[in-house]
Design brief:
globular; binds 4-amino-5-hydroxymethyl-2-methylpyrimidine
Length: 229
């Protein structure tokens, strides 16, 4: 059995789509300062809706961790994430007001609705903890890598967008994503051991499929900012 990190293997294997999600033209335009504010505002409005669906998904993961996890510290990591979402929702409201984005008037785009429905499907008790937390890590990691890129040396991110970039690009959020990644790697390693034993579901394969679905949704989500969908 391959004893390397599963995620590392996936990232090599699916490099193109991963880069598509973490180096999207919207992110590159924020980083080089050429972003159209209308694109940014479209993204902001849609993400307000997405995050509202992300909260119950995070809560469902907490329940799965409590029932299924072999490690108590998983719950602490996930609870920290859930607590941060409270702050995030307040921030979205304030940020939307700052940009004159009227939340009551935002219509969820088809991509957004589909992504939220995908999250809902992962809330089902039938979905294994390992599979669900893989999706959760991937969702957070894409934003972390994307927005951290806009804060690197040499980036020309407009000052009024720095707060947004710092929300997901700050070192603390990076550590949180690393903690999630460690959990996922630990769970996947266990799953591959278990699968060797006998006729268990291929959790490893399911997790990889979910990982790819997240990356596709993330690319589509950024694409909504173009406003031609
Ligand atoms: C679409 N992906 C999307 N929105 C977010 N807020 C995150 C990831 C990170 O939580």
């Amino acid at each position: 059995v391959d004893r390397g990190e599963v995620i590392e293997t996936w990232l090599k294997k699916h490099r193109l789509i991963y880069t598509g999600a973490t180096r999207h033209p919207l992110i590159l335009s924020i980083r080089d300062g050429t972003v159209h504010l209308s694109s940014f505002k479209r993204w902001l409005g849609q993400d307000c809706i997405f995050v509202r669906a992300f909260v119950p998904f995070a809560a469902s993961l907490l329940i799965k961790a409590w029932k299924e996890s072999d490690n108590r510290s998983d719950l602490d990591v996930l609870l920290g994430g859930l607590a941060a979402l409270n702050d995030e929702i307040a921030w979205f409201k304030q940020e939307a007001a700052k940009w004159g984005v009227l939340l009551s008037e935002i219509v969820p785009q088809k991509t957004n609705e589909e992504y939220c429905r995908f999250l809902e499907s992962l809330m089902s008790p039938e979905v294994e903890y390992t599979v669900a937390i893989t999706a959760y890590w991937a969702i957070e990691a894409v934003y972390q890598e994307s927005f951290a890129h806009c804060l690197e040396d040499g980036s020309k991110t407009p000052p009024e967008l720095l707060e947004t970039c710092q929300r997901w690009g700050n070192p603390g959020f990076g550590q949180y994503c690393s903690a999630l990644r460690n959990i996922v790697n630990r769970r996947l390693e266990r799953a591959s051991d278990d699968q060797l034993k006998e006729g268990l579901d291929d959790v490893l394969k399911k997790a990889e499929v979910v990982f790819l679905r997240v990356l596709e949704y993330e690319v589509d989500f950024w694409n909504m900012s173009r406003g031609d969908s």
